[in-house]
């Protein structure tokens, strides 16, 4: 069931069907895993040993400052990947926590397995290339927005890019993701309703 969902996802990136051998490689590489709400996939200070492909559920990646405030780095739902790339690639302690916001089912992959699939399975390589391109563009847009956009513009862009996330995460999480406080987000939402 979980692998079938991943294979359907992979079809979005490559029109070539997977061979039986390639499917078998994924079966060996992808580890079914689940977390209950509020359980951690990764805690700051630990090494990120796995990236997670979300089959069902919602997760968040965040840092905590010296005052105890959470700063949301990434949100993830079905068909999204979650992990700390720097820690995963460099084998360094992570600066981030990643936890389940809802009960979450996922497939985990190690760096070693991912590198093997990149070499041996063209569909995985194509998926990774496309995701890297999209991720770079999204990060660039988010950086530009955080530097120069108003709170209203940030929220409108968020709704446009991620139309379902506002239904899955509470206002304070979305506000943190946007780099504003929840009172500002409430005001922005009221202003948008009156327009």
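Sequence proposed for the structure above (195 residues):
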């Amino acid at each position: 069931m979980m692998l079938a969902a991943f294979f359907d996802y992979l079809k979005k990136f490559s029109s070539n069907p997977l061979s039986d051998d390639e499917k078998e490689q994924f079966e060996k590489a992808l580890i079914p895993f689940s977390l209950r709400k509020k359980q951690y996939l990764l805690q700051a200070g630990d090494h990120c040993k796995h990236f997670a492909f979300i089959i069902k559920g919602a997760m968040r990646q965040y840092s905590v400052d010296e005052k105890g405030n959470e700063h949301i780095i990434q949100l993830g739902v079905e068909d999204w990947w979650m992990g700390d790339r720097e820690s995963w690639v460099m084998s360094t302690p992570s600066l981030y926590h990643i936890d389940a916001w809802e009960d979450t089912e996922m497939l985990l992959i190690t760096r070693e397995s991912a590198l093997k699939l990149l070499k041996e399975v063209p569909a995985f390589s194509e998926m990774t290339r496309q995701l890297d391109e999209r991720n770079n563009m999204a990060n660039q847009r988010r950086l530009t927005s955080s530097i120069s956009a108003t709170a209203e513009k940030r929220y409108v862009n968020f709704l446009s890019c991620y139309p379902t996330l506002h239904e899955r995460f509470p206002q304070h999480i979305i506000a943190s993701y946007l780099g504003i406080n929840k009172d500002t987000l409430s005001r922005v939402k009221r202003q948008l309703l009156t327009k």
